[in-house]
Amino acid sequence: MVSSRFLRLILLLSLVSSSFSYTASPSNSTASDQTIRPQEEIQKLKLIRKELLKINKPAVKTIQSSDGDTIDCVPTHKQPAFDHPLLHGQRPMDPPEMPRGHNKDDASHEDSQLWSLTGESCPEGTIPIRRTTEQDMLRASSVRRFGRKIRRVRRDSTSNGHEHAVGYVSGRQYYGAKASINVWSPRVTSQYEFSLSQIWVIAGSFTHDLNTIEAGWQISPELYGDTYPRFFTYWTSDAYRTTGCYNLLCSGFVQTNRRIAIGAAISPRSSYKGGQFDISLLIWKDPKHGHWWLQFGSGALVGYWPAFLFTHLRQHGSMVQFGGEVVNTRPGGSHTSTQMGSGHFAGEGFGKASYFRNLQMVDWDNTLIPVSNLKILADHPNCYDIRGGANRVWGNYFYYGGPGKNPRCP
User: Fold this and answer.
1) How far is CA 315 from its chain centroid?
2) HSE-CB of 381 using CA atoms within 13 angstroms
3) What mean pLDDT comes out for the span 281-305?
4) Biased-composition ranges for Basic and acidic residues (predicted)?
5) Sign of CA pseudo-dihedral 297, 298, 303, 309
6) pLDDT band for position 151 (50/70/90)?
7) What pLDDT is attached to residue 4?
8) Phi, psi angle pair for 247, to nearest 5°
9) Active-site residue among 41, 51, 163, 325?
10) With the C-alpha atoms ordered 7, 13, 14, 16, is the resulting torsion angle positive or negative?
11) Contact at 8 Å (CB) between 283 and 213?
12) What is the distance between the alpha carbons of residues 398 and 166, in angstroms, rounded to a whole number?
């Protein structure tokens, strides 16, 4: 009989061979580079499995989604957040006081994710977590930085190919922000590019001490393996260098909701000249304990970022941004065709261009108020642009986005 140890070795070597052929890049490798190095690949797989043990917690129930996701129902107190030394042995906080002026009559709601359309849900005392697979980590450009954004130096820089079209406010103390964000499925043309639309709450300088809290929707083939728009969160306290991550891929964000899976696909999505769908997101600082809470839709508290994760954001934000971001890897030496928003320019308007509406901020006394002195910025307006406005129904709003590569954006 063949020993189980030998069978495991054969399986490991077969995984090594398949993973190597997947990750090798024929455009910049030589014949010697393509020589299989089993020892290195075995070490890589060992590292991946070690990381997966940290990320994927034991589940009391598992739900299969129509988009291929596996959703694990994990006991709330065993989620990744509680791996943090300052959270060991604790339980999630009770819901905080809502900001005054909060309107619960928002159209978007928590039943807007594909996995929940099965009719199944996670039981009381658990939270849904999208399971991370070996394939997810093998797609990553770096196993050790899996789930993290590429470092950037300045907000208005396009270093590392990041391009933005945003509305922003600064010059005051900000204790939160709210907006309704139009959801689309923009085309992303490379595995290592993404397209997202989000809210940023920011403090510190745009160097080593940048603090950010981020939430919105994104399409990221590298992170998720597909091109569905997905609800996501992010945070960092040192300009994306060593702290923070997407979703629940590290200890940090504490989830309290059993009906919303961070990182899960959003449905329905908007269509050109067709139905329009948006999600409402609210981020605000709990006046009592100082944690930053996140609400999805009309009343679903998703969870919170503990105040101790941050330096500057322990007090307040100094800037709030709303808008889109893409990564441009300049394939073939020209601008990417990865789309932002709907893939159409702001001037096309409702039903064609993507939008943010009802832009608000949370003031020092925990009151939601309309943003004032909104400024708009597009890094490359010939590729992706933005146009602002205000009316009685949508309050402060803007259209934004674009196709990327076009005759004016070569």
Assistant:
1) 24
2) 8
3) 96
4) 97-111
5) positive
6) low
7) 38
8) 55, -125
9) 325
10) positive
11) yes
12) 9
Q: Are 239 and 145 in contact (CB under 8 A)?
A: no
Token pair belonging to 337: 């065709």
Residue 230: its pLDDT value, please? 98
Binned at pLDDT 50, 70 and 90, residue 3 comes out as very low
Per-residue 3-state assignment (H helix, E strand, C coil) for the chain: CCCHHHHHHHHHHHHHHHHHHHHCCCCCCCCCCCCCCHHHHHHHHHHHHHHHHHHCCCCCEEEECCCCCEEEEEEHHHCHHHHCCCCCCCCCCCCCCCCECCCCCCCCCCCCEHHHHHCCCCCCCEEEEECCCHHHHHHCCCCCCCCCCCCCCCCCCCHHHEEEEEEEEEEEEECEEEEEEECCCCCCCCCCCCEEEEEEEEECCCCCCCEEEEEEEEECHHHHCCCCCEEEEEEECCCCCCCCCECCCCCCCEECCCCCCCCCEECCCCCCCCCCCEEEEEEEECCCCCCEEEEECCCEEEEEECHHHCCHHHCCEEEEEEEEEEECCCHHHCCCCCCECCCCCHHHCCCCCEEEEEEEEECCCCEEEECCCCEEEECCCCCCEEEEEEECCCEEEEEEEECCCECCEC
Q: Mean pLDDT over residues 368-380, rounded?
A: 97
Q: Which of 51, 120, 214, 222 is catalytic?
A: 214
CA distance 366 to 368: 7
Q: Is 325 a catalytic residue?
A: yes
pLDDT category at 251 given cuts 50, 70, 90 is very high
At residue 174, does pLDDT exceed 60?
Answer: yes
The burial class, CB within 10 Å (0-12 / 13-18 / 19+), for 195 is buried
Residue 317 φ/ψ, nearest 5 degrees: -90, 155
pLDDT tens-digit series, residues 45-67: 999 999 999 999 999 999 999 99
Instruction: Say if residues 366 and 99 touch (Cβ distance below 8 Å).
Output: yes
| CA atoms in the 13 A half-sphere facing the CB of 237 | 13
CA–CA dist 237, 211 (Å, integer): 4
What lies within 8 Å, CB to CB, of 80 at 6+ separation is 54, 55, 57, 129, 248, 249, 250, 251, 252
Structure tokens at 189: 């043309």
